[in-house]
Amino acid sequence: MNGTWQDDFKAMVAGRVPGWLPALRQAGMSRFEQEGFPVSRDEEWRFTPIAPISRGVFQPATSPGVVFPRDEAEALAYGPESWPQLVFVNGRFAPEISNTPALPAGVVVLSLAEALARRPELVEPHLGKHVTVEATPFTALNAAFIQDGAFVLVPEGIELATPIQLCFVMTGDQHERVTHPRNLIVIGERARATVIESYHGTGGREDGTRGGPFTAGRPDLPPSRPPAYLTNAVTEVVLGAHAWLEHSRIQRESESAYHIAFSHVHQAEESHYRSFSLAMGAAISRHNLHTRLGAPETEALLYGLSIAEGTQLSDHHTAIYHDEPNCRSWEVYKAILDGESRGVFNGKVFVTPEAQKTDAKQTNRTLLLSERARVDTKPQLEIFADDVKCTHGATVGYLDDLPLFYFRSRGMPEDRARKLLTYAFAAEVLDEIQVPEVRKALDAVVRGRLGVAS
Asked: Please, what is the angle between helix 137-144 and helix 4-11, to 10°?
């Protein structure tokens, strides 16, 4: 491990931060110095080739001195202009292109840097308590460089009528740069909210906005790539008793980028967490999503879709911890892989001896559009209770010849038939998005990527 990270850590400007934050930063750097980057012999990382990251020399991204047009920021939204939207450019909050309308009393939507400066007492009880520096070397690195990100607090009993959008953009001039977004979302007792967390890159081909249709057998993809950047994101979510959150996470980085992320959700009694994760960008992407059902009668519903082509790698690692009785989890992740792309799914469900009456189902399905595409899938159950209902399974395959024959026998060209069937495979999880505007917007993004007209 070279000394670049340590040098950047020493050079980091502390800024206006509470007294407890430097200790968290130092703990992150100390852990990273001790562990270093994971290697292929580490079981949790053996399918994620991070050598391009560990060998790279990434400098901190430059602050948004570059002008990012408001209309481009609005184009990256997944709903009406009236929805609150925090925009971060090259890792720093950009208030001039963000939209922060009046919100119900007590609701806090701020950049993390501003929250640390103005409302540190709201941040301290949760920041770093759920995604610890010990979780992975990347979470340690993120903790060491905590500077900005989003802070959302919805107090007890408040039901937000409109979703909150958190948009992170890397501009095309960020040659071998790195950002460490840190997000904290706290939903109080009996509160209800929807949060859309999205990551975009403006350099190189971005999914759904540039490039041709997505078809099988295209060894020319991806096109020549501009220099890479790295996004290393961490999101902590805390749900109070009887709280409800729908959380959509959209990764549409530049195809030259590397995207590593870790999200952890802590759920209190009778809380409901619904997640949808879309991964379409980046040369290498990995998202760890962990949720802890830490009280009785909680529910977690996790849905995911990844679409990769060329030589992209898309990796999803999930872990659901059933710690208490009478909890339910439902997980469906799908992948569509073309060219020489590679998908990874590693899902774990842990059921403790106290978690009787657990109801858990885990499903992973992968559609291969090319003989050169590959997936490594590993659904797992670890059950230490005897009165439970738990199932898991994985399927990998190509398009079915029978529906293809049906379409072609009615005059539809084979290429269009393949695209429609591929879209139908994806639509099952897209339909699980509960907010109509978001569902429609993401449906258009996926159709654009797959080359399917609306």
From this structure: 30
